[in-house]
Write a structure and sequence with these properties.
682 residues, alpha+beta, 5-stranded antiparallel beta sheet, 3 domains
Amino acid sequence: MISEFNSTRPSGLTRQTRSGFTLLEMLIVLTILGLLAAMVYPAAGMLNDWERHRITINRMEEIRRAIVGDPDRFDDSGLRVIAGYVGDMEEWPGLYEAAPEVKQSVVGVPPAFDPDNVNNPDYYIYRPTGHFTGNSWQWNYPFRQLTDDTLNSSDHIGGLETENEGQPVGLWTDNPIGDSTGMLDPERWQGPYLLPPMDHKPNDTGHLARTDEEYAGLEPMYHIATSEETWVDGDYGSLSGELGEYFDDKEEFRLRRTEYRLEDGWNRAFRFFITADPVHAGATVFWIISEGPDHEGTYPAKGEYNGANWNIDPTDIMADNYDPNDAYNQDNIVMKIYSHEWQAVLVALNQRKKQETAEIIEMVTKGIIGDSLPAAGGFNSGFTGALCLLPRLFRWEGGNWDDEDAAPTAYTKGQPRGLWTATPNSADAGDDLAPPSWASPGIGWSGAFIDSPTGINENELIVDGWGRELLFFRDDTHHALFILSRGADGYFDFYDTDTLPTGAPDGINDYLEPASPAEALDIATYDPNDAGGYNSDNVVAVIKEPTWQPGWFTLEEFTVYNATSGVTKAAFYYGYDSSTATVKSQIYTAGVLSDEDGDTLADDWARGGPAPGQAFLYDDLSADPAITGSRRLVIWDDNDADNQVDIGENQYSKSYNILTHSGLEPRDNLIIDTAVHFAPAP
């Protein structure tokens, strides 16, 4: 329909009308659209690869942060903060593959997997294996950790420096081999650092294989006619006459199965390598490689295959011979992480943590024996000064802290909870530490000697600079307490017959020594320069009896005016008997009185005199030594003759600082008047 609006048209003008497009015009438009589509289609494909490239870079960055932490994070001193796996374990995450494949060309029909021969090249091919369970592909366990064979160079496939399919499994599990014997050190591993990888495209291998039979039929495979495989120790085919993964359909299948494998933007597993650093001696490089849109890569192989034998070349490794300009490598995306960047930081951090640990141990030591002992002028204001014995050690058992096992026998390993609480075992009031009383003047728990640890329940532990439990051992034979931090590597060893602990490196016997909480311990067996090197970075302190006893005290004479024969007594409280749980004291009772104050009355009591007649004498020759600290001398009227001060009995007390040397000896003679100085015991 044509509408006209002539009423507003100026005179002299006319209007033409059209009913649609001509056929020629439509053909021209369609031609142009076709040309545009032809131009845009490849561009769209390129944009898709660029997006996959971006995804790959982002995933690589996630992996790097999981390994070494945020590269832009620094502490207050300007040191980079090394976090992630390396921050906890202080080493690269190992690379692990699924169980290796049995060599069919050797045994004919593959036998059952034999873990005792897992690294025997006569039985196994160094490539990972799996199987179908229904439509789902499952990797075969146990996984094996890849290593470099520098002795025989027989790991030209599967080593850290050559082509492999290993994955840094420790980034998401502390059990990378799938067997409890291969657990990572639970004291150090604080993961997961990444979520376990999932296969986002589980059906993208359907064109290759959907069953075990179809997978077995992929190249390389065992050929009955020639009695050989088209694959020899890797992706290198003898029948095809070619080398390289480009002819390996089995590997292509595996690289697309990304359950528990970190994948790039093309949904293929990343390649990982750990190689020597060709620039920094002793350092290493952790490689992350995506093979890009062509899904191909060329890698060193420690030699060449000549159709019959493998010619070994131990220098043909990634660190030296990876060629980024190789035709198959040009589109590879490569990220390298250098150990020298974090090793220097960790050296500085560990030195700082070692200093922090030394300060923590010094703080704990002061809590036990006070300041400056046994130096001149030092005074025992610590636990041993207050309670006259070393603190007992407690362990978290059955929901509470306990200090003995079923025997009962005192624990030789645990935490000295009495340093910060008088009730170290909430389930047993018998373990409470009593405060000083008139039954034990000056001896008892009167307050915390160190601040309480910040943890709760089983985590209420004194920790070192590395955040690990500070270990305490009692050597009751030598009356000593051994304090130990495991240092940077987290290990120590007493070299006895205990079993290998979970997570410990080969050769270490018992880094959780003693195995039994009540095992007798001889600290003399600890060697700080042990051959294994596990003790060389430990930070230790030993508190022996000579550190806090014997104490020196000489009071040549004391005199009591207005005493009562048989009633007035003097007691010096000098120690504690742990076997009987009683305070040790030396008690004198007034006998025949004399006139010492000149009032013509024989009502005074004098004890001692010039040597050898001292009233009280304790030194390093005393059979029962006094304990350093604040010791109490009490003079009182023992009205009920029970040899202890009771509430309401008249008394006078005086404290003496007892040291481990004779610098204050002898003390000034003591003269008191019961009529003036006595007061009822509160």
